[in-house]
Amino acid sequence: ASSYNNLGGIYDNKDEYDKVIEYYEKSLKIKLSELGHNDISVTTSYNNLGIFYLNKSEYNKANEYLEKSLNIYLNKFEHDDIAVAVSYNCLGFVYENKAKTIFETK
């Protein structure tokens, strides 16, 4: 799973976006089947996919993955933990950008 995740990052740096999704999703699939849906390791894959989609302006997909990550963090950590704060921050970027697209079309 870690190798697939690393490959996703490499392809992201090379702007080969189809491969980014392919490898991040392979990593996620392995983690989900081996560790379960609530394991903290799954958050790395959710975050990577969420941030990837945020950067591609696909805000609904970004929101979906980042919220899954946040929910795991909230079940594992205190609400003032840095991981929780970072998740809220990423979701804030999603909401900010969604709002910009709404107001720019008016």
TrEMBL record:
<dbReference type="InterPro" id="IPR011990">
    <property type="entry name" value="TPR-like_helical_dom_sf"/>
</dbReference>
<protein>
    <submittedName>
        <fullName>Uncharacterized protein</fullName>
    </submittedName>
</protein>
<feature type="repeat" description="TPR">
    <location>
        <begin position="43"/>
        <end position="76"/>
    </location>
</feature>
<keyword id="KW-0677">Repeat</keyword>
<dbReference type="Pfam" id="PF13424">
    <property type="entry name" value="TPR_12"/>
</dbReference>
<dbReference type="InterPro" id="IPR019734">
    <property type="entry name" value="TPR_rpt"/>
</dbReference>
<keyword id="KW-0802">TPR repeat</keyword>
